[in-house]
Amino acid sequence: MELGERKLLILQAIINDYIISAEPVGSRTVAKKYGMGISSATIRNEMADLEDMGYLEQPHTSAGRIPSNKAYRLYVDRLMKVKSLSVSEAKYIKEFYKKKTRQIEQLIFQTAKILSDITNYTSVVLTPQLNKVLIRRIQLVPLEPEYALLVIATNSGVLKDSIIPIPEGISPDYLNRISNMLTSVYKGKTFDEIDINTVLEMQNDIIKGRAFFNSLVDALTESITANEDKEVYLGGPTNIFNFPEYHDVLKAKAFLDLLEEKELLYKMLSKPEKNGVSIVIGEENEHEDLKECSIVTATYKIGDKVLGTMGIIGPTRMEYSRVVAVIDHMGKSLSNYLTRLFNK
Amino acid sequence: MELGERKLLILQAIINDYIISAEPVGSRTVAKKYGMGISSATIRNEMADLEDMGYLEQPHTSAGRIPSNKAYRLYVDRLMKVKSLSVSEAKYIKEFYKKKTRQIEQLIFQTAKILSDITNYTSVVLTPQLNKVLIRRIQLVPLEPEYALLVIATNSGVLKDSIIPIPEGISPDYLNRISNMLTSVYKGKTFDEIDINTVLEMQNDIIKGRAFFNSLVDALTESITANEDKEVYLGGPTNIFNFPEYHDVLKAKAFLDLLEEKELLYKMLSKPEKNGVSIVIGEENEHEDLKECSIVTATYKIGDKVLGTMGIIGPTRMEYSRVVAVIDHMGKSLSNYLTRLFNK
DNA sequence: GATTAGCACTCGTTGATTGAGAGTGCTAAC
DNA sequence: GTTAGCACTCTCAATCAACGAGTGCTAATC
């Protein structure tokens, strides 16, 4: 069967209406609200066709129809016109990026908050991926005679700091020398490229005490392999309650519990390597509890390097056109900001 | 009216039953389950008295009775026997504190998780309060020619780090000298005691560039006054769904939204300065959305210094005896751990 | 041949009614 | 002072009918 012009118009009308109302849309509603000079009976016939073609579904016989995942996919790929941001929204975002925040966590957190505030959906923003980040400096900072602080600074903020014990008789000056040496070896590399063996080879060279050496290697290894730093910031987690499809307590709990699984979120969102905005709709999600959700993601970068991802999660019936506009804008804003701040 | 022995027994029975069942308790139930050799009619009379005295409430005429806030207060103050932890629980906690975690955030986060896992309620743990924490070292770490990292190390981990721009022609060695000087001035002080004027006075002494000086003072001031560091970690936020009193979507949303208000939580929990476990029951809470909740808190310390607070939030009908046992134990465990790790 | 009016049919929603069950308070007997 | 007995109250769950939204089909119309 052909997917003619009129069918497309009707489908679009149904999707638009359903996105707003969350109620199955009937033929009369389409005829009246989106009056296109044809009667409800004609629309009924077309709707029956659209159902046969897999674009519409009927919850039960005497209800209207709701769009299928296939319909949403068609919608976002072909039908949807991306709205541009409202003036006040754009201004709100711009204002935010004016004030200098030096702490990257704060920045990411605020980004999540803005996303959820503007869209009224739940947002997720990943902190920069370690393996994309360049080491700038490794510094051992003396704290007390027995402890030193290992700081690893990168081109997107300080990513790691841990306290390591040091044996007696090691001077701040000596720590400084080690720091300089480590920095010279690893500067400009990513965490992926760090080879712990390089450190091991230094042993004979300038490292004095065994205990200290072990602590240092431990701390470094921990820094490199640590996945705790894969942090995920949420915005408006309870926004999901705004939608009637989540007025069910069990469903809401499942959703919120999912949001607590940071590793899972991280894995899911960091997948789309590709630049720009991408959309995953309903059943396309792998995770069971997300089969009724859609996720719109965008990446953010420093210079040309993709550092992380931000996403909006909401019911399949999502205001895609608005969400895409917002997240695209935010991705670019954050990238600009970071690039200005950290890129040389 | 007298609050005799038998009345207390009956009250206790009703509280115990209601804590488990969440259903109003009737006279027959008390007679049967907590058989104390008296008939349901007698118990009915006693219950009527207890209601007159304000210890019991009746949701409606033909329902059983539920304990009032006053009853819970009496219960936690006089009736309750604090259970000791189960062997497996104690072991679980002990195991956790065996493995060395050097990062304080990680530690706090895990503490929250353990609390909620063991109790099945929602837990809240505050990060150490800045004004209680002693500065150990202030260090400017050079990153690139134009940027340095300001690290403030304290006796409970690294609490602040921000990036500040530095003007040209300032050598790492010079940064080191400033660091040493700042450290010598502020070491052993708390953030409260820092007087920014002291820094201003140095101006004529060793500070060279105006721009740099301003950045430094800005960053320091930000560190001192920043309240972003008042972080709050949650454990098991959705545990609230376990309780029938929160099967209502609106109530649940209100509760979860409250948990997102970190500053508010911080203020509420950091109030009880006193050592040990304290309990706030239902109406005693100031916040409207907590009038049906109880909060059990304990403090944690380094040495003798109270650093922060942990809390369990649940419905008024809470298993106080178990919760008190758990949180008391956790408070002490965390204090021991921190003291061993950081106190000299 | 496409469109439309008309109509019978389906099915979920709403509101009223009803009976069962739980629990109480009171009275009178023990 | 305690208890058995009983009328009374109130909630909860089940049942049922009326309603309305929406459909699919048929026959008439453009």
Account of the protein in words:
The structure is a homodimer of 344-residue chains. Chain A has 3 domains: 5-79, Arc Repressor Mutant, subunit A, CATH 1.10.10; 87-129 and 230-342, Beta-Lactamase (2-Layer Sandwich); 131-225, Enolase-like, domain 1, CATH 3.30.390.60. Chain A is α+β, with helices and mostly antiparallel strands. In chain A, the strands form 3 sheets. Chain A has a 5-stranded antiparallel β-sheet with strand order 7-3-10-9-8. A 3-stranded antiparallel β-sheet of chain A has the order 4-5-6. A two-stranded antiparallel ribbon of chain A has the order 1-2. Chain A has 12 helices and 10 strands. Chain A has helices spanning 5-21, 27-33, 40-52, 69-79, 87-98, 104-119, 172-186, 196-202, 210-225, 249-260, 262-270, 320-342, and strands at residues 56-57, 66-67, 122-126, 135-144, 147-154, 157-165, 232-235, 278-281, 293-302, 305-315. The mean pLDDT of chain A is 86. In chain A, a hairpin with a 2-residue loop joins strand 4 (135-144) and strand 5 (147-154). The A-B interface holds A 102-103, 106, 136-137, 139, 141-144, 149, 151, 153, 157-158, 161-164, 176, 219, 228, 237-238, 241, 247, 249, 252-253, 256-257, 260, 344 and B 102-103, 106, 136-137, 139, 141-144, 149, 151, 153, 157-158, 161-164, 176, 219, 228, 237-238, 241, 247, 249, 252-253, 256-257, 260, 344. Chain A binds a DNA duplex (30 and 30 nucleotides) through helix 3.
